[in-house]
Design a protein that fits this description.
This protein has 16 helices and 14 strands. By secondary structure, it is of the alpha/beta class.
């Protein structure tokens, strides 16, 4: 089956085929025909299964080949990285049309986004905060929106965006076509769907008995020591066949430190975390996608914004908070039908967290094996050659700097014969030690004379 069989028009089919996208994923096969009829949809599928084109292609087709200027479609996403990813996919699909796409998110200057809106962009992809900000300033209007999409709805809930999403829904026409997509369906998301959708059809693209252990990802869980993690990661990065790798950390500081450490070891590593400017984050993502850097270190804020098909390894430097976060992280690998490897480090204090994740996902790994960078099973599990060290280059040992004002070595009476000025004890130039001794002896003689006379 191809996209033409699903009812997608020729120009978009050709745009996708030009980049090697020819066959739809299951979520696309089930979603596209229904979405083309204008039926509200709740689409549920794990990350990396092609949800963007599942709602994007019907949305673009509904606007026509040459749509009128003005915001006609609104796609709301939880993170800046996901906004960039969705925009790229939408631009690809509309490459043979006059449809204009604009990304609206924080961390970037307002001017370029406002100019694109004033120029008549028909499709807006944005995060809730910046969208509401522009709407409050009357710089954007959603009064003519025909189609609204809420992508990664469960992540919206995690980040506390659902109240903002409700305000956005309230600013769009009640007759709009609404599509909601999410990997999981917690209660508040279901409530949101019931409130703002009209008799939606719930589409689940995975079989009910599918579990994480049946996926095309190999999972390795190790109880590792914090001081040994860097060396373990370095050795994993030297495994034969290792391609692009994503490493997740719990904190921004840990991400920055690990990036510096891996670069020091000779690897090409970038980072994406909240302490970086938006431009810096985008440069890291572009370099990673282009292959200029093959290691990306990220906090969970970027977990759903990394859409790269050739990620071979995901490493959890610290354990995720729950099983949903675990799925979102490891979902960066094994995409588009490929295989992947997920390695998770569990600290001693986090064993209880792992027990809950293991139970929820039925992974069958109740007790992570204690593992070090020298453990034989570690080399065997990840196909790492024996003797591999976690470093591509050695770090030069910095030379000890001379203190300011410190005299050259040997200038204060060296054991090999005095100062560099040519003086020596035999040449009549007494050293400081000799002079001090003579002064002390003279003082003692004077004190003895005073005591005798008295």
């Amino acid at each position: 089956m191809n996209f033409s069989d699903l009812g997608i028009e020729t120009d978009m089919v050709e745009a996708l085929e030009a980049t090697g996208i020819k066959e739809p994923f299951p979520i696309q096969e089930q979603t596209i025909p229904i979405a083309l009829t204008g039926q509200d949809i709740i689409g549920q599928a794990k990350t990396g299964t092609g949800k963007t084109f599942g709602f994007g292609l019907p949305l673009i087709q509904s606007l026509g080949v040459d749509p009128e200027p003005g915001v006609k479609a609104l796609i709301v996403v939880p993170t800046r990285e996901l906004a960039v990813q969705v925009t790229e996919d939408m631009v690809l699909a509309t490459s043979n049309r006059s449809t204009s796409i604009v990304s609206i998110y924080g961390g970037k200057a307002y001017e370029g986004q406002i100019e694109a809106i004033k120029a008549g962009a028909q499709v807006v992809v944005g995060t809730p905060g910046r969208l509401l900000d522009l709407a409050s300033q009357r710089l954007i209007s959603f009064a003519d929106v025909k189609t609204m999409v809420l992508d990664e709805a469960d992540k919206m809930l995690d980040l506390g965006f659902l109240p903002d999403v409700e305000r956005l829904f309230a600013q769009t026409p009640a007759t709009r076509h609404t599509m909601l997509f999410s990997a999981t369906m917690p209660g508040p998301v279901v409530t949101l769907a019931r409130r703002f959708m009209n008799k939606p059809i719930h589409i689940r693209a995975t079989s009910p008995d599918e579990t994480i252990t049946q996926a095309n990802i190999k999972h390795f869980v190790y109880r590792a020591h914090a001081l040994d993690k860097d060396e373990i990661i370095g050795r994993i990065l030297l495994a034969p066949g290792r391609g692009k790798t994503v490493i997740f950390t719990r904190t921004k500081r840990a991400a920055a430190r690990l990036m510096e450490e891996l670069n020091d070891r000779g690897f090409l590593a970038g980072a994406v975390h909240g302490d970086m400017s938006q431009d810096a984050r985008e440069r890291s993502m572009v370099a990673f996608k282009a292959g200029k850097k093959d290691v990306l270190i990220a906090t969970d804020v970027a977990a759903r914004g990394i859409d790269v098909d050739d990620v071979t390894h995901v490493i959890n430097h610290t354990i995720p908070e729950d099983h949903d976060a675990y799925l979102h992280r490891v979902g960066r690998t094994g995409r588009a039908g490929k295989t992947g490897i997920a390695v998770t480090f569990v600290d001693w204090d986090d064993l209880h967290k792992w027990a809950l994740i293991n139970k929820s996902l039925e992974m069958g790994i109740p007790e992570p094996v204690e593992t070090y960078s020298s453990s034989p099973h570690f080399f065997k599990d990840l196909n790492i050659p024996e003797g591999t060290k976690g470093r591509l280059k050695t770090t030069p040992i910095p030379q000890k700097e001379k203190r300011a004002g410190q005299p050259p070595r040997g200038s204060q009476g060296s054991p090999r014969g005095g100062s560099r000025s040519g003086g020596s004890p035999s040449s009549g130039s007494p050293s400081r030690t000799t002079s001090g001794a003579e002064s002390a002896s003279s003082g003692n003689r004077q004190r003895r004379r005073r005591r005798t006379s008295s």
